[in-house]
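Service request form, structural biology core

Requester: graduate student, group of Dr. S.
Request type: structure prediction, single chain
Budget code: on file
Notes: please return the result as structure tokens.

Sequence provided:
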Amino acid sequence: MFDTLFSPITVNKTVVKNRIAYPSLGLLYSYDGKLNDKYYNYFAERARGGAGIVTVGPVGFDVVGSGKVILVIDSDDKIPDFQKLTSIIKKEGALSWIQIFHAGAYSYSKLMGGPDPVAPSAIYSQYSKLVPREMTLDDIRETQEGFVKAAVRAKEAGFDGVEIIASAGYLITQFLSPLKNRRTDAYGGSFENRVRFPREILEMMRAALGPDYPISVRMAGNDFVEGSNTSAETPAIAKVYEQAGVDMLSVTGGWHEAHVPQLPMDAPRSVYAYLALNVKRAVSVPVSASNRITDPFSAEQLIKDGFCDIVNLARVLIADPYWPQKAREGSFDEIRPCVACNQGCTDSIFSGRPVYCIANARAGFEGERNIAKAATPKRIMVIGAGPAGLEAAVRAAEAGHRVELYEKSDRIGGQLWIAGTPPHKHELWDLVNYYDALLDKYDIDVVLGHEVTVDFIKEEKPDHVIVAEGAEPLKPPIDGIDDPKVLSAWDVLENDPMIGPSIAVIGGGAVGLETAEFLAAKGTLPAEAMHFLFMYDAETVERLRELCIRGTKKVTVFEMLPKAAGDVGRSTRWVLMGSVKRYGIDIITGAKVTSMKNGTVTFERNGAVESMNFDAIVNAVGSRSVRNVSDAMEKTGVPYTIVGDAKKIGQIDKAIHDGFLAVMSIR
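Core staff response, request fulfilled:
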């Protein structure tokens, strides 16, 4: 079915078994720059799952460039640990690559008690919030030699190929960029001078590694930063890389400080494949595409259509390391989806925490969390088919238990249906499809439309009960909360009732803002209509942009705290707030709502009382646990575990991880 995706490809003289690569992605499983069992177990799983290339990285070679927290290969005594890792990866059937890294102006070394960051020019960095020290010619030569020495150590450690990072706004892109490189010597000014730094690194590296050893570059297809390189310039940069001896180019999107989303759900699937094609047209070496390539059908088609030769699956292989194996076997409906939420990966890294995955409870815990086959299978009753209950049900069945799943509504999924309704959030529904496939695979008894009671549990006498009752909207003690014009965010997102043009949303957290976005998007131009009108020049570009963001609703959000979106992750908050601004949604912060009667929102702000009238008011202040069964389980005498929102209100990751851990604890 996916013959092209699983065909071999040769990089230099090295044969890669398929067209699937796991690219470098920071993990933070140590803070001393050293490998440990957490890394070994993580990479073993990615290699075991069937990827052709598994890339370890980013790996630095000095404190200035690595910021003191990422892995480093800065001395020969690090080689044995990396030899152990390459042996593990190869044993599991993949080729091992390494990405050599230098952050330049993006480095946090100074904030961690180290030296000042360095860059081609002393220009303030919006990313690190620091002014780097301008590199001297000696600094440049020393850094180039650092790249090469790291590559030589990597080869000695057994890596099958080496990659240098020239993307995301790190050091090499800073040299390439006319925005960040203001030098007046041989390394600044003209295009030829700006590419000199990476060109010399690659030439030195090729001389040191020999003609047959694979070298690749992770390059930006477009910086997406005003004044920097665009997709018009990057093909010429790619040609320089090829002439300098590069065997493969891995093309990704823009810089960390770009105002174009690279990774969240807002970015359409495979949206940046065009950047790989743009580079591929200019070179003869293999080119890989990156970002938001999620399913085997898309991956196969991108290669067939000539966009790229290889697909990079980073977060996708965090969510499911066995994506390649399942795709090859035709079990693609059993692939655990990456829903591009960024919570466990990008948000964690940006917050200085180790990577995990909301949907894969084992990611980052491969050596600790495993579902073992039960020595004595039990009859397990799971109450509630939201994410916590679904995860518990399928893992219990995986362990060999006999599982019965009860859900009081007429469909599985619980709050996933609500969470996936706002614009660009529909991929959360893929989790429902995934669990549905596993329920079928494990032949789990699913009973819908059945509200479990304590008496029912006593009658059935299961060996163990996992209670995943979930949550319900919180009704704050505000005058008028039961007024006919007041709706819950859950009702709006689940049932999409007809609402007048003027709407208030009470609560400026993630749920409130996403509900506001859902409402504000009503009446805007859909993507297919946009494409049609643009292709036929039916409207001006300015008018089309207006039609994309001006709908039929005017939405105002009231938030009691000084700042909205306080519970939204760093990597996605700016995207959500950008959408709020574009849709013209007003946010009133520091507003304590005291009444919602008759469509009038009365609130206190800065010591004054104000009122505003609306056609409808949406309550989005939060949720509370449902514990109808949970609080009565002791009376049944049956062993039980409470998971998800029924245990404590949280996000999807807590629910899924709770379900997994509940099964691990059954004895």
